[in-house]
Amino acid sequence: RDMLRRHRGLRLVRRLKAICWWCHQHTAHPETDAWLAANAMPDERLERLYRQAWERSPQGQYETFGIPARYGTGIDWNEFHTRVEWQSND
Prior knowledge:
By secondary structure, the chain is an all-alpha fold. It has helices spanning 2-6, 12-25, 33-38, 43-56, 58-65, 77-80. Helix content is 57%, strand content 0%.
C-alpha cells in the first residue's frame, strides 16, 4: 500500500509496473535489471489485464455493465418494517 501511495501521481500502467518491480525485488532470488527489462510486460497487455480484472470485480461490473452487486446492496426486510407487539382486542 505504501508503494501505491508513493506512486499515486503516475499513470496506472506505471503504478502497476512499480508494484511488479517491488514484488520482484522482495522475492528470495530476484533476477537482474537486464532480465527485468528484457522480460517486461508490454503496457498494452498490462492495461488489458487490468481492465479484465476490473470488469470482473463487483464494482467494475456495476460501473461497466450496470450489474448490481450480489451482496451488500439488496433490500433488507428490516429496513422497511419494524416489529411491534400484536395488539389483541380481547
